[in-house]
C-alpha cells in the first residue's frame, strides 16, 4: 500500500511536469490544455479560485463532496480508510446513451506541501479490491492517473489544476467535449469553482 500511494502521487507529479501541453480553450478563469503521447491523451483544467489553497485542498480531497459539483459522479462511498492520507472509494457514474453505467474503485492519496512553493496534491488511480468485484450492472472502468494540484497564489486565492490521463473507459465522456460540440469539461470546471468559493 505504501508503494501504491507513493506511485499514485509520483505519477500525477510526473504528468503535471511533462513538457508539450497545448492550450485548447481559455475562458475568464478556466484554461483547458491537452497533451498527446502515442495512444494516451491527457488533459489539464486550470481554474482560478478565490479561496485559500488549504480550503480548496480540504474540499477536493474528500471525494464524497464531489457529487455536489461533478454531475458525472452518481454515488461515491468510502470502502476503506487506509490512513489519514489515503482512502479507497467506490464511485458510480451516469450511463452514456447506449452504455451501461460505469463504476470505478479508486485510491485517493492526498499530500500537503513540504515546502512553501510546492502544491497541495490529491492523486487518483484505480485499484483492485477483492471485496468489490466487477458487477454485471456496471461496466468497470479504470483511471490510470488523475487528480488535483493546488498552488497558492495569495492568502485568499489559489490555482487549482485538474489532470486526467484518459483511457478508453473515460473517452466517451470526453470525445464530444474536446471536439467542441459539448461543454461538459468547462461546465464541470465552473461548477467546481462555484462549489469551492
Automatic annotation (TrEMBL):
It comes from the Eukaryota. Gene3D superfamilies: 3.30.530.20. One of its GO terms (cellular component) is cytoplasm. SMART domains: START. PROSITE patterns: START (PS50848). Residues 16-166 form the START domain. Pfam families: START (PF01852). GO terms for molecular function: lipid binding. InterPro entries: START-like_dom_sf, START_lipid-bd_dom, START_lipid_transfer. PANTHER family: PHOSPHATIDYLCHOLINE TRANSFER PROTEIN (PTHR19308), START DOMAIN-CONTAINING PROTEIN (PTHR19308:SF14). This is ACO12 thioesterase.
